[in-house]
Amino acid sequence: MEQDVSVAPEFKAPAVRTITATFELTSPMFMAGGKNGGKNGGNAAPELRPTAIKGALRFWWRALNWPRIRLLHNNQHNALVQLHAEECELFGAAHKENARPVRGASRVSVQLKSADLKVMPENHSLPPGLQYLAGQGLWGSLGKGQPIKLKRRAFQAGGQFQLNIQAHSAINDAQWQQLNQTVQAFGLLGCLGSKARNGFGSVVLQNVSGATFSIPGTLAEYQAAVRQLFSGAAGLSELPPLTALSACSRVDISLTERSDRPASVLDQVGDRQNAFRSFKSDKQHPDARRDHNGVLNAVDQHQGQDNYQPQRTVFGLPHNYYFSHRKLPVPFNVFIDRTSARRASPLFIHQHRIGDQYLVVQILLPALFLPAGADMHLGKERFRFRPEDLNWPLLHAWLDGFDKRVCLVEGSREVPNG
């Protein structure tokens, strides 16, 4: 007796969607690898790490998607819960809930397909503007009597690397579009490595396949693409609790220049910011003198009863103040729950390239500056952070100082206290 045997349908694995993207470095990149720790870690060769690239993608995903999620809820707490859940679903998670580890597989993988990157020579010098942007963490002396030079090695500008950014089959169409917008933002405005907010490690998307967007080929197309990325934030007037887009966000092309030396354009920004913030410069902002006198009264003459909060706080913490008659700088630090903390600058610098033109793009993303109850330590003075005294207009004054600037996103200058 014959038996009917049904034939199982042929199994077809769900398609994995892949974005293949080639990026160019337009400024030096300082990125440590697994062997860069220890006493002599600064002499080790830099390493381009896919985990760091994925971290940068997660940052831009949060920044872009916060306005959408916040507008769905009547309070920030519920919006933060959803933001965290969606990020973990897309990029994976490794955290604790109720003291128990929680792990979730990522639906996005970042693979380094190829890299053509050259390492700076150990004795390489930086021009003055880049020295200022690098700061003491990357530029200075390694010890008493030692020469002033780069403390860590870096990849030179001009190199390229190619990534495969794969989306798991479980990703839905909305997540796929979010991923595309994230890669696009990273390629238009992103940086990698140490001092990324000061323009180091600027990356520019040069080629892409498998994506839903195209690369701007002209300055006008670049401007339109950036404006489109920020368009969804116009309805969010409150200050975000994390670094993200809002109606207060601003994007300027501050400088545009044809140059065969990429570093020269970013170097100009460093020179100008040094002059803007310096007491001794003839191009100083008036608040530089106010800070000089206010800090001096507080720490030298013990007249800090008013607990002077420096105007330049808004550029980020910690930072130091220098006086010619003092051998040591006056540190300005922040402590949260009695623990030393940092507050990165809300101002981002990115150096872009379109053809033979280099653009310095500055992105201002106002957000909650410090949590309630943060303690400020100015020399020996101690006082509570006052959000109402935070000088957001100072950052707009800095951006307004570029007379040939092109404002791509003109955010509200009325920033809520935070």
Explain the overall architecture:
- The protein has 418 residues and is of the alpha+beta class.
- The chain has two domains: 15-34 and 43-118 and 153-215, Alpha-Beta Plaits (2-Layer Sandwich); 238-418, no CATH class.
- It is 28% helix and 24% strand.
- Strands 10, 11, 12, 15 and 16 form a five-stranded antiparallel sheet that branches. Strands 4-7-1-8 form a four-stranded antiparallel sheet, with helices on one face.
- A hairpin with a 2-residue loop joins β13 and β14.
- α1 packs across α4, α3 packs across α6 and α4 packs across α5 (219-230).
- The relative contact order is 0.15.
Count structural domains: 2
DSSP strand count? 17
* Average pLDDT number: 88
Largest sheet: 5 strands, antiparallel
Order of helices and strands: EHHEEEHEEEHEHEHHEEEEEEEHE
- Provide the β-strand percentage band: 15-25%
Rg measurement, Å = 24 Å
Task: Assign the structural class, choosing from mainly alpha, mainly beta, alpha/beta, alpha+beta, or little secondary structure.
Answer: alpha+beta
Report the uncertain regions. none
Measured between the Cα atoms of the first and last residue, the distance is 82 Å
Q: Percent of residues in helical segments?
A: 25-40%
Q: How many individual helices?
A: 8
| Dominant shape | globular
Question: What order do the helices and strands come in, and which of them pair?
Answer:
Layout: E1 17-25, H1 50-70, H2 76-91, E2 93-97, E3 100-104, E4 108-116, H3 128-138, E5 139-141, E6 148-150, E7 160-167, H4 173-189, E8 203-209, H5 219-230, E9 250-258, H6 262-277, H7 286-299, E10 319-321, E11 330-336, E12 339-341, E13 347-354, E14 357-364, E15 375-378, E16 381-384, H8 392-400, E17 406-409
